């Protein structure tokens, strides 16, 4: 498409226009307007961009459909739009009103606008400034998806009856693809949102121990609701000091499966440690200059083995993690739920708890508890406010 053209969908007064948005476009030649009959009562029309929202388009009724032109209009270069040859029947003036192009839909069976999620992302214009919702029909989409930093405000919305019905999955290990290269979905752009779907990396760590990410969030202000994020090692990476709000969701993994240097709140989530030999829920790399890391808030922690799972270990020396008002099952190591990582001591990290319950919860010298006064500064809103007072919690 030429640089001076724009994609639009049109409603014509007294006509029904029911053409899929993927078929609507502007002609590359701005000096001509034309029509192509699609079906009775429907038209696929292309117009020069300079006449997009103004003036009256001359319409003639013909047996095979409509023939239209803007006889008195002109393009940006002042070249008249050519009137099509039509049978000489009474002419009528039609008004054209711009409509939204609608939401693109991804469907594996070809019934959507696109058949892959990446194709739908690719269609979003660079420098996008408005919310773009990509609906994804139920099914399994085996692909890797990258949302580049110049495509913010994208939403993935699963159309299945639940998040398990719409799955984006791949099986790349970091040992061959690199850390972010292994991610099934790698989000570089800010303001990403997702709901009612699953991000999965089904690489089996028993084949060869390796990271294999389901989701990497590098863009600020991500919001995930009612999603599933599942893998083995390093399931979910929140990095680049990005902020993320994850609510009413399910996170599953084995080792360090919530990790990174970002700031994230897990509100009313289910977190499941699936390895029979236990593992580590978190591995924060919070910079010392950053007050907040990860907050697990009013969530439920479960796992198969008893007394084998650590709440976390410090990837960075100043790691910050708080488990607050959450239910900790017997999978958690009761006597000492934190441990060292390389040369980083858990005792020097900022690991806190507050009013947790369940068989895996207790109060002892290895489990630093916040006071009520301190807890007032460790809320979801505080974790995510940043310098711009962002509050996705409501």
Automatic annotation (TrEMBL):
Transmembrane segments: none annotated. Coiled coil: none annotated. Keywords: Aspartyl esterase, Hydrolase, Signal. CDD domains: beta-trefoil_Ricin-like. Pfam families: Pectinesterase. GO terms for cellular component: cell outer membrane. PROSITE patterns: RICIN_B_LECTIN, TAT. PANTHER family: ACYL-COA THIOESTER HYDROLASE YBHC-RELATED, PECTINESTERASE 53-RELATED. This is Pectinesterase catalytic domain-containing protein. The lineage of its organism: Bacteria, Bacillati, Actinomycetota, Actinomycetes, Micromonosporales.
